[in-house]
Amino acid sequence: MMIHEIHRSYSRLGFHTYTLNETTHTEREEDEILTVRYEDGRWSKPYYDCGGGNIWMLTYTVPFFGYVNDTYFFKGTSGIDIDLRRLDIDQCPLPPGSTQLNIFAASDKCKKRTTECIAIPGLGFRRGSYRCVCKRGFYYPDTKSTSRYYNGTVIEEEYEKLMMGDESQYDVEGVFECLPCAEGCESCEDDSPCVVSLNWLMRTAILILECCVIACLPAVALFTWKYGNVKNDQRTNDPCGQPVERPGQLNSGLNGRATPKLTLLVDDQSGNETTYATCPWPISVTSRHSCDGYYPGNYYTTVESRRE
Questions:
Q1: How crowded is the C-beta side of 73, counted as CA atoms within 13 Å?
Q2: Cβ proximity of 91 and 129 under 8 Å
Q3: pTM for the full model?
Q4: Beta bridge partners of 185
Q5: Where are the alpha helices (DSSP H) in the chain?
Q6: Averaged over 9-17, what is the pLDDT?
Q7: What is the pLDDT of residue 136?
Q8: Is 82 in contact with 60 (CB distance < 8 Å)?
Q9: Where are the transmembrane segments (predicted)?
Q10: 134: nearest Cα among 181, 73, 91
Q11: What values do phi and psi take at 42, rounded to 5?
């Protein structure tokens, strides 16, 4: 009796008829059926209805039962078909911290290193409803294009070819990817520099000239040392305006000119904190000692020459 009462609480009084053809039906008969809840039904996976409507569909199916002689028995199923053509698919990753349920999330085929996915609403139930746009710090290779993004539909087609073993552009390096911005740019539209670029042609020419001058200095120093004791009756001035009576006095001046030129060899490369802090010191020291007449090792020679 207890079981019968429980069944009664979940049952409802209904009616059913049998259809013989489009116009002939049997009389409506009273029947007692079980109440079906949402949890009793089942959702199908998305499928393509070939021949029926040639559309993507979902079907929700629930069973229904009859009741005879205090016993319920299975009579059949009833289903609801849902057209998916107007249902958008969002294949892009969910935002951080999102609790949204999306079984298609993060299924896009964008090249994650340089591009990111942006969903396109209103395209219906089909894959590729997104764009692959360049990440911050990268730019679209075709700078003259008005649509600076990669079409998700095209990318999905190329990815499918790759999975099928056919010739595909998806795995080709550089395809469907963006290019990095120039050094110092946080964002850009092309490869234009954001900081001053070096003229390497001019710098190389100056460097070669400096190397030639530095290479000649040892020969000049040897010449002045060899003929340092030769008496020079004609008084001349060095580049700093100091009187020079003997060629040997030029050695210190040559050293003072060579040191700043050597710093150019270091400064010609891409600078860093060490080179920037070091390069001014040789120039400052040599310029002070060379143009004030305090050449190391030759101060007394200059004084004695003036006394004579």
A1: 7
A2: yes
A3: 0.54
A4: none
A5: 2-9, 152-164, 200-226, 250-267, 273-278, 280-291, 299-307
A6: 62
A7: 96
A8: yes
A9: 200-225
A10: 181
A11: -140, 135
pLDDT tens per residue, range 229-244: 666 555 555 555 555 5
Q: Which residue has the tokens 């550089």?
A: 174
274 to each of 3, 91, 265, 278, 281, how far by Cα in Å? Answer: 91, 50, 14, 6, 12
Q: Tell me the CB-side half-sphere exposure of residue 206, using CA atoms within 13 A.
A: 12
- Tens of pLDDT, residues 27-48: 777 766 677 888 889 999 888 8
Q: Return the closest-CA partner of residue 111 out of 143, 138, 144, 145.
A: 138
Helix (H) or strand (E) holding 244: strand 243-244
pLDDT tier at 306, thresholds 50, 70, 90: very low
End-to-end CA distance of the chain: 143
Percent helix, strand and coil across the chain, each to the nearest 5 = 30, 20, 45
Candidate from 89-103, 119-133, 281-295 with smallest mean pLDDT: 281-295
* Distances in whole angstroms, Cα of residue 24 to Cα of each of 29, 248, 279: 15, 132, 105
Instruction: Give, in degrees to the nearest 5, the angle at Cα 40 between 75 and 71.
Output: 40
Three-state DSSP class for 133? strand
Residue 71 has pLDDT above 70, yes or no: yes
